[in-house]
Specification:
Layout lengths: L1 H11 L4 E4 L16 H9 L1 H21 L4 E4 L20 H5 L3
Parallel strand pairs: 1-2
Helix pairs in contact: 1-3
Length: 103
């Protein structure tokens, strides 16, 4: 994420807007006894989810402040954190409220 922001700043000399969204998950039913613990842990421990968005907010904000012109940062997440979802999406539900906190 840091490299992406630095490359953007080098090319465009500023950042007015950052929209962040990340997600990873194994397809399958959270309640299915055949879903492995490892598959669920990969979703919950993934650096792609909460960590990536958090670091993206940090690096984008730093770049905007350094440029001295400000900007807007928005994060988006699946509706899985606020509404009923299909069986295939259940393992994402715990992560989505955390991502919505950046919204």
């Amino acid at each position: 994420m840091e490299r992406a922001v630095k490359e953007h700043m080098a090319r465009f000399h500023g950042m007015d807007l950052a929209v962040l969204n990340a997600g990873i998950g194994k397809r399958g039913d959270f309640l299915d006894p055949n879903m492995t613990t490892e598959a669920l842990e990969q979703t919950l421990d993934s650096t792609v989810d909460l960590r990536a968005v958090t670091m993206g907010v940090r690096y984008a904000a730093q770049a905007m402040m350094t440029a001295g012109v400000g900007g807007r940062i928005s994060s988006i997440a699946s509706a899985a954190g606020i509404t009923a979802v299909s069986q295939q999406q259940r393992q994402l539900c715990p992560m989505m409220p955390a991502l919505r906190g950046w919204a």
